[in-house]
């Protein structure tokens, strides 16, 4: 047991002694085979598992020569058990499910204690949060495919350790894409509409949908089609013959020739032709030039994958499809039956960190995915030094020039301020302003609670500079000074993660406190382009978004080989507040609604966060919650496009991951955010994770998936609302012939959705249940969540900008918990822990 664990236990004992609390409620730990993990059930160990402490970064070279580079996660505890991870996980390899990994579920995070009185912090929560953000930097195409799709590559992705359940993540990304292995895609089953598009307009997703409806669908439904509808009996639909074309549709060859001529001239002059007026393309162009290899647009990529996905196996087609068996008897004992039952994992003895989820795939694939595209109105070539290939030197020169021109920018900004109040992004002579994407500007003007003045990108004298609104008020003269002359470090470190370390700084000019994130250096085995992309993602998102529930970036600068992002400072990690165990139900609801509001904003502008978790929420002393860490965020929709750009890669943190992320190579990232938000709510309420990872090898998750009249997780995850998918039909047919081992039993609180939901307050159950629908296609979307009666009824603290200074409107039914600053951030806690352990030695 680590000294930290001891410390935490001591603290817990003290807390228990003083509160007279029943610690048995809070100490759900291992869920061994045969246990349900429910509190108060026999066999639940009452001792917190060992807390892995920080371990040094290390590089692991696999037998196949590929390398995993990762650092350990850290966990901290407040009160009873406080998980915390700060992990770097960078890889260019495919992950193999290690034996350890197969034991995830055994250290039982689980649904448990009823909400009455708000349960104390579970030790499983502590252990589970070792899950780290999988930040994927590999440039390999394709994605890491978890076991469900192994059939396409015999010999790959076989289950390791005989644990059953989900077979291993298949061998390598390269094999998944590079070898032409069919990549499964969920898009075909996702009816979500992209922002600003009508519901049935998602050509991207629907396109592949149609191809997944094979003749088998017709076999089943063809006979019952209405009379005026005839079934298409082939997947090949030929174009109608056209005998004549109206003259107005005929473009003369001369016209074409002259158009292409002028295009060529534009290129020769360095004027790029806009592929899309998208946020990401605009941003991407700041750093990336068109690479000869990257000629296809993200949507093309997406479409390519779609087609390969739809050609390919459907989930149920693969032989290694995970099968669920109702492993819980009436007493809640997990007792697997049948050969296909994933065997309950055995207790983990090793550090959870060592076996935590392995990163995979290229996260960058669909993020800011338009290095190839360029701006129409403000060709980056005019404003940013460009090389033919993206490079760190681009990034450096960008930041260098940016920082040296902040002063000029700020002056310009001040002049423009008045204009900006009326028109968020204005154009003025001498200053070229990159227009904000349509959907961002729409969103900003549509903000229901106050209006928010965004920052802007200005291109001046060949430089591109970002100025956040705060910079508008800052003194231009100070801005000319180097970073170290403008800010001084103060206080302690706030935290560190996969992206870098975050520290507290003070602006000398006005003594204002900020948080500064120093991006980590590029790893040796990391592809330059991916590193640059990761940083630019955070930079671009941070500097572009403007919403009270999204952290505001003040400036970003490159100096002395360091990339520094200055952000507004929030006094508390939400995690620390949750772990204080002092939050009232109303306060939890307020925080939840604020998180949802931030997510709604992101989704409305075509962005998904993909790494929503307590750790990535900070809260200020006014009770305003802000989402941070956009290192994993992706664009899922481009303005004026109805095409869904799917995300790829297992990105996020294990306990918060949506199941489809672990199953499919590509997925809609919006339902993923929705799922994660529900897990955040469950964590706030229960002080522990419902499960450690959404895989069947996790006993708690397996029980959650049980009792649904369906034996296959693939079938559950690919369910569609209407019309039924091919897989569902198969499932339906199968269930008609053979009875499921997982018959639904709403009265059994140990299995099925009720396993989680019954632990939550009644009014929350409906929408939370819809948020954790196993099938992303059936999962509710953020807009529907916001109009849920319970969500609407939440009295939420919010910000209004009705004057020069934003004003916080506090809710009436709660105040926000504050903790001592020494316990408000993880770094402080770690320091405390170290001090204590040193004094013990
Ligand atoms: N603006 C802020 N105000 C206060 N604390 C912050 C702020 N930004 C970050 N932190 C602290 O620093 C920690 C690390 O920040 P962040 O998540 O951005 O880093 P990261 O390296 O990207 O982490 P990850 O491993 O999740 O990718 C956060 O968990 C939080 O505790």
Written description of the protein model:
With 841 residues, the chain is α+β, with helices and mostly antiparallel strands. Strands 7-8-9-11-10 form a 5-stranded antiparallel beta sheet. Strands 1-2-3 form a 3-stranded antiparallel beta sheet, with no helix packed on it. It has a 3-stranded antiparallel beta sheet with strand order 4-5-6. Helix 4 (203-212) runs parallel beside helix 8 (298-311). The structure holds adenosine-5'-triphosphate (ATP). Adenosine-5'-triphosphate is lined by residues 86-87, 133, 135, 494-500, 502, 515, 517, 551, 567-570, 573, 615-616, 618, 628-629, 631, 825-826. It comes from Maudiozyma humilis. InterPro entries: Kinase-like_dom_sf, Prot_kinase_dom, Protein_kinase_ATP_BS, Ser/Thr_kinase_AS. ATP binds at residue 517.
Q: Which labels suit this protein?
A:
841 residues; binds adenosine-5'-triphosphate; 29 helices; disordered N terminus; 33% helix; 5-stranded antiparallel sheet; 3-stranded antiparallel sheet; single chain; alpha+beta
Write the layout of secondary structure elements.
Layout: H1 3-19, E1 58-61, E2 67-70, E3 89-91, H2 123-128, H3 173-178, H4 203-212, H5 215-221, H6 253-268, H7 279-287, H8 298-311, H9 352-355, H10 380-383, H11 392-404, H12 406-422, E4 432-433, H13 438-446, E5 456-460, E6 463-467, H14 469-473, H15 476-480, H16 483-486, E7 487-496, E8 500-507, E9 512-519, H17 528-544, E10 553-559, E11 562-568, E12 572-573, H18 574-579, H19 585-604, E13 607-608, E14 617-619, E15 625-627, E16 634-635, E17 647-648, H20 659-663, E18 666-667, H21 669-686, H22 699-705, H23 713-717, H24 726-737, H25 754-757, H26 762-771, H27 782-786, H28 789-793, E19 798-800, E20 807-809, H29 826-840
Antiparallel strand pairs: 1-2, 2-3, 4-5, 5-6, 7-8, 8-9, 9-11, 10-11, 12-14, 13-16, 14-15, 17-18, 19-20
This protein binds adenosine-5'-triphosphate (ATP).
Protein name: non-specific serine/threonine protein kinase
Enzyme class: transferase
EC number: 2.7.11.1
């Amino acid at each position: 047991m680590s000294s930290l664990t001891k410390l935490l236990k001591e603290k817990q004992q003290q807390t228990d002694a003083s509160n007279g609390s029943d610690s048995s409620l809070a100490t759900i730990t291992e869920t061994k085979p045969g246990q349900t993990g429910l509190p108060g059930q026999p066999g639940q160990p009452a001792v917190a598992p060992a807390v892995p402490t920080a371990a040094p970064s290390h590089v692991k070279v696999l037998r196949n020569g590929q390398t995993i580079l990762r650092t350990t996660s850290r966990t901290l505890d407040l009160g009873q058990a406080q998980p915390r991870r700060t992990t770097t996980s960078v890889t260019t390899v495919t992950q193999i499910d290690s034996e350890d990994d197969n034991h995830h579920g055994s250290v039982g995070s689980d649904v448990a204690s009823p909400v009455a009185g708000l349960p104390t912090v579970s030790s499983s929560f502590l252990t589970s949060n070792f899950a780290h953000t999988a930040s994927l930097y590999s440039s390999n195409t394709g994605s890491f495919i978890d076991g469900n799709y192994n059939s396409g590559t015999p010999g790959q992705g076989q289950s390791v350790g005989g644990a059953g359940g989900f077979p291993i993540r298949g061998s390598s990304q390269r094999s998944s894409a590079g070898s032409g292995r069919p990549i499964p895609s969920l898009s075909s089953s996702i009816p979500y509409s992209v922002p600003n598009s009508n519901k049935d307009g998602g050509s991207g997703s629907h396109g592949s949908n149609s191809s997944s409806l094979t003749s088998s669908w017709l076999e089943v439904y063809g006979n019952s089609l209405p009379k005026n509808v005839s079934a298409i009996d082939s997947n090949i639909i030929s174009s109608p013959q056209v005998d004549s074309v109206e003259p107005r549709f005929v473009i003369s060859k001369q016209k074409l020739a002259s158009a292409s001529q002028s295009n060529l001239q534009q290129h020769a002059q360095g004027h790029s032709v806009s592929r899309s007026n998208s946020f990401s393309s605009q941003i991407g162009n700041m750093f990336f030039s068109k690479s000869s290899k990257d000629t296809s647009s993200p949507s093309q990529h997406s479409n390519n994958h779609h087609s390969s996905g739809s050609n390919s196996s459907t989930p149920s087609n693969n032989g290694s499809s995970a099968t669920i068996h109702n492993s819980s008897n009436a007493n809640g004992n997990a007792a697997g039956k049948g050969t296909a039952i994933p065997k309950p994992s055995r207790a983990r003895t090793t550090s959870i960190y060592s076996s935590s989820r392995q990163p995979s795939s290229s996260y960058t694939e669909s993020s800011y995915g338009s290095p190839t595209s360029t701006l129409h109105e403000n060709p980056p070539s005019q404003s940013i030094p460009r090389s033919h290939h993206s490079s760190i030197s681009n990034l450096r020169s960008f930041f260098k020039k940016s920082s040296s021109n902040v002063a000029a920018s700020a002056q310009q900004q001040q002049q423009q301020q008045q204009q900006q109040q009326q028109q968020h992004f204005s154009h003025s002579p001498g200053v070229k302003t990159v227009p904000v994407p349509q959907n961002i500007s729409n969103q900003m003007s549509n903000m229901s609670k106050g209006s928010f003045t965004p920052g802007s990108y200005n291109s001046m004298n060949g430089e591109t500079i970002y100025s956040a609104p705060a910079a508008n008020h800052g003194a231009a003269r100070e801005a000319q000074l180097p970073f170290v002359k403008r800010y001084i470090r103060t206080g302690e470190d706030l935290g560190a993660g996969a992206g870098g370390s975050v520290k507290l700084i003070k602006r000398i000019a006005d003594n204002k406190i900020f948080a500064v994130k120093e991006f980590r250096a590029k790893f040796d085995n990391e592809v330059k382009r991916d590193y640059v992309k990761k940083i630019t993602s955070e930079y671009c998102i941070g500097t572009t978004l403007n919403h009270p529930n999204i952290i505001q970036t003040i400036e970003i600068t490159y100096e002395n080989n360091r990339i520094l992002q200055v952000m507004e400072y929030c006094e508390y990690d939400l995690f620390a507040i949750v772990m204080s165990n002092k939050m009232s139900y109303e306060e939890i609801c307020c925080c939840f609604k604020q998180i949802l509001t931030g997510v709604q904003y992101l989704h409305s502008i075509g962005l998904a966060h993909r790494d929503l978790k307590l750790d990535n929420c900070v809260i200020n002393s006014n009770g305003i919650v802000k989402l941070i860490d956009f290192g994993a965020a992706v664009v899922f929709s481009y303005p004026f496009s109805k095409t869904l750009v799917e995300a790829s890669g297992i990105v996020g943190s294990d306990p918060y991951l949506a199941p489809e992320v672990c199953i499919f190579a590509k997925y809609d990232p919006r339902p993923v955010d929705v799922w994660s938000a529900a897990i955040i709510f469950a964590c706030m309420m229960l002080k522990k994770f419902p499960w450690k990872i959404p895989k069947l090898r996790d006993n708690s998750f397996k029980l959650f998936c049980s009792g649904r009249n369906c034996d296959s997780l693939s079938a559950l995850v690919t369910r569609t609302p209407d019309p039924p998918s091919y897989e569902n039909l198969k499932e339906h047919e199968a269930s008609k012939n053979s009875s499921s081992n997982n018959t639904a039993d709403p009265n059994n609180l140990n299995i099925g959705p009720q396993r989680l939901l019954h632990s939550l307050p009644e009014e929350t159950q409906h929408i939370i249940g819809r948020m954790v629908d196993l099938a992303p296609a059936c999962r509710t979307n953020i807009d529907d969540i916001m109009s849920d009666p319970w969500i609407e009824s939440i009295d939420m603290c919010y910000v209004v900008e009705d004057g020069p200074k934003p004003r916080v409107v506090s809710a009436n039914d709660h105040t926000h918990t504050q903790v001592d600053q020494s316990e408000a951030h993880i770094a402080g806690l770690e320091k405390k822990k170290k001090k204590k352990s040193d004094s013990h030695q």
